[in-house]
């Protein structure tokens, strides 16, 4: 350490800045200065303070950074007032004011601190705190000024957040405007304290994330770590009131919490050897972190899909929006509260408590009294014990809407809330959507507020009835909820089973990767789908997704037996289907005869039921997005089983697959709105199903369909026949007409045409499809023109002409058509 190598100058009046000082010092005394290019460093060389330009900016700021990683700026003095050139100076006055001066000694920024008669000295501590101390005082911990009182976008260990006990200033983080501009941006992260404190990340005035209220031990909406070193925040109380928090300073761990310009909070630790910052956690990190993600009166849970569920006793305000995964309008009560005439409470376990918008807190009331208190006021909609520590009392009551509730796995949160419901809603059978909720509350409490004898008897009867019913439902729920963790196979096992992924074992090449046949050492035959490496999912997400998909069980779906994860490799292990896929059967002359009409009809019904289950009956709504005959497998008894469902989820939303930038899907089966605009929905699956129905009926492929008289696809051909009232001609000509149930065939074609209609909204839902196919008496609407109804050759030859030659169908002597065919080639679509 070099003492006093800075040259003393007199800031006040003399301006002869000609002297040069050493590059780095550890402190500054009055009338010394550092200029741009010089720095102060902390004693152990951890931090450095000096001038810098952020990002691509040319302007200069005074800031503090890590000496090992100078690009990480933890504090900026003149956030709003950049220096225009490199002639800035930092100096300390005798009165303990820190001044930042520009090239003409104008004060650009000042610490606004002062202490007359002190012996001030500016020091940068190893904590990253820039402080002015009074050397006359024995207590060096009491600073005249400290940068920790003026946080920027970074919270360092030892730095308070909340209220500073001595100065009463609020300490919060504010993001930079951009990586080039440290002036305060739109995001802030602060302790809000209206009764019960919580941490809130906001963008302007709107909340982005909320930690949940202080529960006596922690904020349960914040990430928790097994390693205490990152998770031992110190909370400071004033009597019962939490006023601030900080992370303890620990020599051996260099860590920081940064709110970046995009509004994302990251906790980082420095790997000292590699000089690399590791992200320990990030907020927001998943959909449920976002404030009010699921709208009002709903619960967000990352372990179920979709993440949003209405609270029990509530249903979506707009089912239509909800179906489109737009949760913003939230949920409303199925039936109004009865107030004094019989309301009860439903205990919901393991949650982040609703936001404290309209609430009352009484810290001296027991939870039992809280219940009674809540019932007294008709507008009280829920109550909870805000504190989870043993022996503590407290009563928190909510009024109005319940906002931003999150459900955790039980081990993560010990916090419960009691939701007020009319007694009628406390039945299990009640409530759409909410009855899907996976958690069966352990206990429901009834409180009868009307004390008439009759009411008591009625409620008693109801309770008995409900308990009987509940036991039954509970059992079913658990059967089907059974948390079976799907087996994880080692890649060695799979390699051995597939003869080291031998070419000879390849069963097919699906959109998401090749499928191999395999045999486990026990003799069981399996099909192994080796996913192409474009899945961006990490191990945890992949496992979650696979476990969700494994829960989809239906006789018309291929069963998933397990998965395999090794490095980047992701594989799915399915039951093996002896008879391979439907397309191989249907388009092969030697096997197609096995599929007689009744069998084909059963196959159509089976596929439709499987798809209905995916769309509506399972707890996950799955849109297949790549339904085609090669994805329908046949078992020994020729029962159809849909495969490859759920893969679109593993490959994530709109992401392209493989190297091509195509949407997931196969031409010939894709609905126009999906093929052209990439918009998919249940109705795009219905379109694909319609193509499959028509292919099964005709025994012909839509894509490769050709007809001597026109250049339409199979769909177009069916449409022409429909309009000519000759639609039964579509049925596979290999069938003896006497062996075809003609009304059934007619109905099937009709349903097929309804499914492939051009406009998604005209197409039926899967439940209608199953109904219409299976019911002779069903009255079917007239189909509209199918999607892609254009003659393929015409598109090429006559840009303007899209008229179809209905009248010419089947008139083979028409020479124009024949000559057209000779000069055009079919265009692959
Ligand atoms: C500097 O580091 C040494 C060893 O790492 C430690 O013993 C000492 O307490 C540190 N000094 C300060 C001021 O942090
Ligand atoms: C000081 O900086 C300003 C720009 O901010 C410039 O116009 C001026 O010439 C500079 N003065 C000196 C003495 O360098
Ligand atoms: C220090 O404070 C005294 C008393 O307020 C004032 O007279 C003097 O001008 C100040 N000096 C400086 C350098 O600011
Ligand atoms: C500092 O961190 C180290 C490493 O995690 C740990 O062993 C030690 O107990 C911590 N010290 C304090 C004072 O928390
Ligand atoms: C910071 O911002 C970028 C986007 O600019 C984002 O990708 C990153 O994950 C953010 N979060 C953290 C904690 O760095
Ligand atoms: C959700 O609840 C809040 C608070 O009661 C209310 O201000 C807001 O309008 C509600 N939003 C909707 C979509 O109902
Ligand atoms: C709660 O109880 C404590 C101690 O028993 C008492 O000091 C305090 O005033 C009470 N608070 C309220 C709001 O009644
Ligand atoms: C019920 O509680 C609300 C909110 O605290 C309050 O405004 C209202 O006056 C109360 N009503 C009764 C009848 O106590």
TrEMBL record:
Pfam families: B_lectin, PAN_2, PK_Tyr_Ser-Thr, S_locus_glycop. This is Receptor-like serine/threonine-protein kinase. One of its GO terms (biological process) is recognition of pollen. It is an enzyme of class 2 (transferase). It comes from Lithospermum erythrorhizon (Purple gromwell). Its main location: membrane. Residues 501-788 form the Protein kinase domain. Its EC number is 2.7.11.1. Residues 284-320 form the EGF-like domain. Belongs to the protein kinase superfamily. Ser/Thr protein kinase family. Residues 1-22 form the signal peptide.
């Amino acid at each position: 350490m070099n003492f006093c190598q800075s040259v003393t100058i007199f800031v006040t009046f003399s301006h002869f800045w000609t002297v040069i000082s050493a590059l780095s010092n550890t402190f500054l005394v009055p009338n010394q200065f550092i200029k741009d290019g010089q720095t102060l460093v902390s004693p152990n060389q951890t931090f450095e303070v000096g001038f810098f330009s952020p990002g691509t900016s040319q302007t200069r700021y005074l800031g503090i950074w890590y000496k090992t990683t100078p690009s990480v700026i933890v504090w900026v003095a003149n956030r709003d007032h950049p220096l225009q050139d490199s002639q800035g100076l930092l100096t300390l006055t005798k009165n303990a004011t820190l001044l930042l001066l520009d090239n003409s000694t104008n004060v650009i920024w000042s610490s606004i601190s002062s202490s007359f008669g002190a012996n001030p000295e500016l020091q940068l501590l190893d904590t990253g705190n820039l402080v002015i101390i009074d050397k006359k005082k024995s207590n060096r911990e009491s600073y005249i000024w400290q940068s920790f009182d003026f946080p920027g976008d970074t919270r360092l260990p030892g730095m308070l957040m909340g209220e500073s006990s001595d100065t009463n200033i609020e300490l919060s983080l504010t993001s930079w405007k951009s990586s080039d501009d440290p002036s305060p941006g739109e995001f802030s992260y602060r302790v809000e304290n209206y009764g019960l404190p919580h941490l809130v990340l906001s963008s302007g005035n709107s909340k982005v994330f909320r930690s949940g209220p202080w529960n006596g031990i922690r904020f349960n909406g914040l990430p928790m770590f097994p390693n205490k070193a990152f998770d031992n925040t110190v909370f400071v109380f004033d009597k019962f009131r939490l006023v601030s928090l900080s992370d303890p300073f620990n020599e051996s761990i260099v860590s920081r919490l940064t709110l970046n310009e995009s509004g994302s909070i990251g906790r980082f630790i420095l790997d000292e050897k590699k000089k690399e910052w590791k992200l320990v956690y990030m907020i927001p990190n998943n959909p449920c972190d976002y404030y009010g993600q699921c709208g009002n009166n709903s619960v967000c849970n990352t372990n179920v899909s979709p993440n949003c569920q209405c609270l029990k006793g509530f249903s979506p305000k707009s089912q239509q929006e909800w179906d489109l995964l737009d949760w913003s309008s939230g949920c409303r009560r199925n039936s109004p509260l009865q107030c004094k005439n019989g309301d009860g409470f439903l205990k919901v376990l393991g949650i982040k408590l609703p936001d404290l918008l309209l609430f009352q807190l009484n810290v001296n009331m027991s939870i039992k009294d809280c219940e009674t208190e809540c019932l007294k006021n008709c507008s009280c909609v829920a109550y909870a014990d805000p504190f989870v520590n043993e022996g503590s009392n407290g009563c928190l009551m909510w009024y109005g809407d319940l906002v931003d509730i999150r459900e955790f796995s039980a081990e993560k949160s010990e916090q419960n809330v009691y939701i007020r419901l009319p007694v009628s809603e406390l039945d299990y059978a009640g409530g759409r959507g909410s009855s899907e909720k996976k958690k069966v509350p352990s206990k429901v409490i009834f409180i009868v507020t009307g004390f008439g004898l009759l009411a008591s008897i009625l409620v008693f009867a109801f309770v008995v009835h409900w308990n009987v019913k509940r036991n039954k439902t509970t059992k079913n729920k658990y059967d089907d909820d059974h948390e079976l963790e799907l087996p994880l196979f080692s890649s060695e096992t799979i390699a051995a089973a597939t003869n080291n992924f031998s070419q000879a074992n390849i069963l097919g090449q699906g959109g998401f990767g090749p499928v191999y046949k395999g045999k486990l050492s026990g003799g069981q035959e399996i099909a192994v789908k080796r996913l192409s490496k474009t899945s961006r999912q990490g191990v945890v997400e992949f496992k979650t997704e696979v476990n969700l998909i494994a829960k989809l069980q239906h006789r018309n779906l291929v069963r998933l037996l397990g998965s395999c994860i090794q490095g980047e490799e992701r594989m799915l292990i399915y039951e093996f289907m002896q008879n391979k896929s439907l397309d191989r059967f249907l388009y092969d002359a030697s096997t197609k005869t096995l599929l007689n009409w009744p069998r084909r009809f059963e196959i159509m019904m089976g596929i439709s039921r499987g798809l209905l289950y995916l769309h509506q009956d399972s707890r996950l709504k799955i849109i297949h997005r790549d339904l085609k005959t090669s994805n329908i497998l046949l078992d020994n008894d020729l029962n159809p089983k849909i495969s490859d469902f759920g893969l679109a989820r593993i490959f994530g939303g709109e992401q392209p697959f493989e190297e091509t930038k195509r949407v997931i899907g196969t031409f010939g089966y894709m609905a126009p709105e999906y093929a052209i605009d990439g918009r998919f929905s249940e109705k795009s699956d219905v379109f694909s199903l319609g193509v499959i129905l028509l292919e099964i009926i005709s025994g012909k492929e839509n894509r490769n369909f050709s007809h001597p008289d026109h250049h339409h696809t199979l769909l177009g051909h069916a449409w022409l026949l429909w309009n000519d009232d000759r639609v039964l001609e579509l049925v596979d000509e290999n069938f003896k007409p006497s062996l075809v149930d003609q009304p059934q065939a007619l109905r099937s074609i009709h349903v097929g045409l309804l499914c492939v209609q051009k406009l998604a909204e005209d197409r039926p839902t899967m439940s209608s499809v199953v109904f219409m196919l299976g019911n002779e008496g069903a009255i079917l609407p007239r189909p509209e023109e199918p999607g892609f109804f254009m003659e393929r050759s015409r598109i090429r030859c006559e840009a303007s002409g899209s008229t179809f030659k209905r009248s010419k169908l089947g008139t083979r002597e028409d020479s124009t058509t024949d000559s057209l065919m000779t000069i055009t080639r079919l265009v692959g679509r």
